Amino acid sequence: MLDISDTSALTSSLSNNVEPSIQIRNLNFHYGEGDLFKQVLFDINLDVFPGQIVILTGPSGSGKTTLLTLIGALRTIQDGSLQVLGQELRGLSQKKLVQIRKSIGFIFQAHNLFYSLTARQNVMMSTDLYPHAAGNVAPASVAADILGKLGLGERVDYKPHALSGGQKQRVAIARALVNRPKLILADEPTAALDKKSGRDVVTLMQKMAKEENITILMVTHDNRILDVADRIINLVDGNLESDNVVNDSVTSDSRTFML
């Protein structure tokens, strides 16, 4: 675990160099009220910087998905501060929250594909929503290219009913990655994939993170992909228990820490 003896001095030093993609301070979250009150996140403090791949682990029910959805501006911030891509989410209007989501690629456990559309057309749904992301390249070509990188080059014109569960998940992953978002939030992205397909997915994500300075925060129980992480954070009973730097280049860069 990265030993930080003076976090205030380090925070000041880092702020002069690079702004974190995710900055969390004293974040708490609960469900229900009265007799149904249940707190699921306790005083979370965390910084994640551009180009980092951070894997979030922990037992089921520890608050991982709740934290991911808060960072993704899919839930209302109740207590504390949460900044994403330089914008404080607490108190933000729905219109501005929608704008922030446009810069985030979401990968959920459920693929949520449109069954009337082909794999290519499902991916193009993202490029149609954000046409500026593709630049001057035709959206159909961009969609086919990323599907090819995920091993689906021969199935771009297949509809979901003709695809396996793992193939459908890769289409959903392609849809999340196609616009080169600044931040990718992934909830068990390789759970439905075999070893090779899972490796193809995380290799592409790792390449994008390093070459395009994209931040990736991934919840997973898949020990096969832990080696792509720069940091592995363990969340237990709503508390951040550890923050381990596993990439030596990150340690030497001194850009990551948990307060």
Keywords:
single chain; 259 residues; alpha/beta; Rossmann fold; 4-stranded antiparallel β-sheet; 8 helices; 10 strands; globular; disordered C terminus; nucleotide-binding; ATP binding; ATP hydrolysis activity; ABC transporter ATP-binding protein
Pattern of helices and strands: HEEEHEEHEHHHEHEEEH
Beta strand %: 15-25%
Helix-strand category: alpha/beta
Strand segment tally:
10
CATH architecture of the domain at 7-103 and 181-253: 3-Layer(aba) Sandwich
Cross-sheet strand order for the largest sheet:
6-7-8-3-9-10
Largest sheet: 6 strands, mixed
What ranges have pLDDT less than 50 throughout 5 or more consecutive residues? 1-15, 251-259
CATH topology label of the domain at 7-103 and 181-253: Rossmann fold
Number of helices: 8
GO molecular function, one term: ATP hydrolysis activity
Keywords: ATP-binding, Nucleotide-binding, Transport
Domain ABC transporter: 22-258
Organism: Pseudanabaena frigida
Describe the structure in your own words:
There is one protein chain. The protein is of the alpha/beta class and 259 residues long. It contains eight helices and ten strands. It has a domain at 7-103 and 181-253: P-loop containing nucleotide triphosphate hydrolases (Rossmann fold), CATH 3.40.50. Strand 9 (231-236) and strand 10 (239-245) form a beta hairpin. This is ABC transporter ATP-binding protein. Residues 22-258 form the ABC transporter domain.
